[in-house]
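In the laboratory, one determines a bound structure by crystallizing the protein with its ligand and collecting diffraction data. In a computational setting the workflow is compressed into a single prediction: the sequence and the ligand go in, and a structural description comes out. We illustrate the idea with manganese (II) ion.
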Amino acid sequence: MQIILLGTAAGGGFPQWNCWCPPCRIARTDPRRAVPRTQSAAALSADGERWFLLNASPDVHAQLGRLPTRAPSGMRYAPVEGVVLTDAELDHTLGLVLLREARFLQVAATRSVRSILENDSALLRVTRAFAEVRAVELPVERPVPLDYRDGCPSGLSVTAFEVPAGPPRFAPKGAAGHTIGLLIRDEATGGTCVYLPGCGGLNESLVARLEAAELVLFDGTFWSDDELIGLGISDRTARQMDHLPLSGPGGSLERLAKLPSRQRVYTHINNTNPMLIEDSPERALVERAGLVVGADGMRFSL
Ligand code: MLT
Ligand code: MN
Ligand code: ZN
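The predicted complex, in structure-token form:
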């Protein structure tokens, strides 16, 4: 299977339109030193022609341009077979309405994500006014085959698993399954990948799951727990926002550094995270630990 990181920034993108934090300033003035990034999403394909999106970001139009495509014989074509959602956050779902010109859209989500999209953000309801939407239910802890729009199997499967996190701000608390990670498997090659753009903590069972994957794409939102507080941007810690920071005791960097996985890559990186600066000490620490700071357009083959 092939995986393309379509977007590697957290909500707001990088630089964020209204932000003048140190990384955003550098991204504007010297973009080679802090490369701009679009909001987090990835694409997945078994054959390199037909793709499934992992989340639909507000930057989806620009991101689709990264998918290899051929000129079709008809008038309408995009190499997108469906969208698989990890949560109902706006940075992962606003792209659904932006794909409304599709005549037929497959959207795989847990029951709880689907309910938030129907009743709270109403994005699925709005999209359905323009396009036929087929909702595919993603149960937790059970592999689901990803089928193409014509019903044929792609040979890829996804298993959703719950991760520690709260629901979006605009959604009711309590329903399980509002934030998941995805274990993706290519039945033909045996290749496995975990996609986990939002994760509030790493317990033993989660670490065991990451250990089993060849490629781990993990929440790189914040460098430190008090990152936004230190910049005077917010009074909430990273952990309070359901993002395990990289640094410090119990941070993701020390845990992921020990994983045997061949490739470990951070994505969903907030614009304030100093590791976005290419020559920063934080970037050097990540790379010395054997991890990669994700960038838009990175490709993996498993
Ligand atoms: C998050 O990653 O915590 C959310 O996407 C926050 C947001 O609404 O941007
Ligand atoms: Mn987000
Ligand atoms: Zn910023």
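The longest helix spans residues 90-98. Keep in mind that any predicted model is a hypothesis to be tested, not a measurement.
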